[in-house]
Design a protein that fits this description.
alpha/beta; Rossmann fold; Nucleotidyltransferase, domain 5; 2 domains; 8-stranded mixed sheet; elongated
Length: 547
């Protein structure tokens, strides 16, 4: 028997060899990829993150796909990352099914292994008495094995390797089981948690939120039923069942499955924990962070027909407002602190909001002021943006909501400050999932400080859990203190600003010998294009090979 050594070249070869050892119904069929994209995403995640959580729909083949990962891990030499694989389901049938799946993958990889072994191991009972637990394992020539254990936390005691906890949300003592699994990370093990949801208060949902909010390191791989269909699930079902695939048949299949689940479809198929809809930022949480009491909210409302006035008149009107209201706020900024901003654009109806952030030495991010623009033409918004961004000390990054007309202003900012400093964002469900939870963590940790303003609070209250995603719903509109419409505009600007501050852009610059630094807020002239000297931005990855 030869030992299976896993390298990138081996993976490609083993995938080709798989085709000769597939179940009989698949033999002779040309398959471009054995693993569907979401199954491959799980394997890539476990290769680069010690803790991975798979937030998934029912019956999309996640466990089948991860069986390949288990075999590649247990079949590899220790020098290639090989280790024991410990599988924990919540009943005996799950254990038997996973071991059978791994046996199929072992044959497909031609991995040297013995036959499936059913055995008993001794486990200490609740009152200290030992009892025999039925388990299954596959042993490999590498010296490692895949073992299916009981769901009791103490079954992991004294063991080391790669732990796979399947349908985690349905284990009797899920929190204690996860705590026991974390101990294996100390000596280089891995933990994969796979599950569908079982309520918003379940430890599985809590684990996902901790990772998304950055309170626990790890990686979340999410795949809904519709995601799986889009990536080829029904085509694979047709292949296995010997049916002909068509778009019409897939649409009918989708409708039937959703009809079968009824009201449970959201949780079972769409990865939305039950009772997961509602306000994301509570009033108490928001008010606890409204500690920047001296930070002004600078509001500009342009009169009706303002866009039809001459260029000179519009510029003069805006310049007067900048000198009277914005310049004094800029002069109060601490030139030692790094600054970034977020910009939510609107031309009419809703507001444009620019939210700068300054990161203090205590790592608290403070909003020194907020700018709200109503009925402000495109050119004047550009003028205001450049005036402020040019004068932000140690300006490092900005993010723009680039949907619709906002794309033009985002493009102008990229052209002026460069793509390393400015990012044009098209908010989507993955973007909200990646960027809103870290902001909530800052609220919970009290590491963000905002102006105390009723309209800003109302905007943040518009963020809700919509089908498991924290976002401002499309139909969420409120009336501000000025009687105008609002659409959670400050909330979006703040998420963008926090994401910009989290970006890995570095600002650096120099002042020539003998040159006096420009006073804060001082302009190079009346063109409103002043700044802070020769400043460039670079991302850390671009430093590779230069030092």
């Amino acid at each position: 028997m030869t030992e299976l050594l896993v390298t990138a070249e081996d993976w490609a070869r083993h995938r080709r060899e798989m085709l000769a050892e597939l179940p009989p119904v698949l033999r002779g069929v040309s398959l471009p990829e054995v693993l569907l994209p979401y199954q491959g995403a799980m394997l890539r995640a476990t290769a680069s993150h010690p803790l991975v959580v798979t937030d998934k729909s029912r019956r999309i083949g996640a466990t089948w796909g991860i069986g390949a990962d288990a075999v590649l891990t247990a079949g590899a030499a220790k020098s290639s990352g090989g280790m024991d694989v410990l599988y924990i389901g919540y009943n005996l049938d799950m254990a038997r099914e996973f071991i059978d799946c791994c046996a199929m993958w072992a044959r497909a990889f031609a991995a040297a292994s013995s036959a499936v072994d059913e055995f008993l191991f001794r486990e200490e009972g609740e009152k200290g008495a030992e009892r025999a637990i039925q388990a299954f394992r596959i042993t490999f020539a590498s010296g490692f094995e895949i073992v299916a254990l009981s769901s009791r936390p103490r079954s992991l005691r004294g063991r080391q390797g790669y732990v796979i906890i399947d349908e985690f949300a349905f284990h009797d003592d899920a929190e204690a089981l996860l705590k026991a699994a974390m101990a294996l990370l100390i000596w280089g093990g891995k933990v994969l948690v796979i599950s569908t949801h079982n309520g918003v208060d379940n430890p599985f949902n809590a684990l996902i939120q901790e990772i998304r909010e950055g309170r626990r390191p790890g990686k979340v791989v999410r795949c809904t039923f519709d995601d799986a269909l889009e990536q080829g699930l029904y085509q694979r079902i047709c292949l296995v069942r010997g049916k002909e695939w068509s778009p019409e048949a897939e649409a009918q299949f989708r409708a039937e499955i959703r009809a079968y689940y009824g009201d449970g479809a959201a949780e079972e198929l769409d990865c939305i924990p039950a009772q997961g809809e509602g306000v994301y930022f509570s009033s108490a949480l928001i008010e606890s962070c409204m500690t920047a009491v001296d930070a002004p909210v600078l509001r500009l409302v342009c009169p009706e027909g303002f866009e039809l006035r001459s260029d000179h008149e519009r510029a003069s009107f805006v310049d007067d407002w900048l000198r009277d209201h914005v310049a004094p706020a800029l002069k109060q900024l601490d030139t030692r602190l790094r600054h970034a901003y977020g910009y939510d654009f609107a031309r009419s109806g809703d507001l444009s909001v620019m939210a700068p952030l300054a990161e203090g030495r205590d790592l608290v991010r403070r909003t020194p002021f907020v700018i709200e623009l109503r009925n402000t033409p495109f050119r004047e918004q550009e003028r205001i943006l450049f005036y402020v961004a040019d004068r932000l000390p140690r300006f490092s990054a900005g993010q723009h909501d680039a949907r619709g007309n906002g794309q033009a202003l985002a493009e102008y900012a990229i052209q002026k400050y460069g793509p390393l400093a400015i990012e044009a964002v098209m908010p989507s469900q993955p973007w909200y999932l990646a960027n809103v939870p870290p902001l909530k963590r800052r609220f919970e940790d009290r590491t963000i400080a905002l102006p105390r303003d009723a309209d800003l609070k109302d905007d943040l209250r518009q963020v809700r859990m919509v089908r498991g995603v924290p976002k401002v719903p499309d139909d969420a509109h409120t009336t501000g203190g000025d009687g105008g419409k609002r659409h959670g505009d400050f909330a979006i600007a703040l998420v963008l600003a926090n994401a910009a501050m989290d970006a890995d852009a570095i600002a650096y610059g120099y002042t020539p010998v003998g040159a006096a630094p420009r006073a804060l807020g001082e302009s190079a002239g009346d063109d409103f294009m002043g700044g802070y000297g020769d400043v460039r931005r670079i991302r850390p990855r671009e430093l590779r090979g230069r030092l």
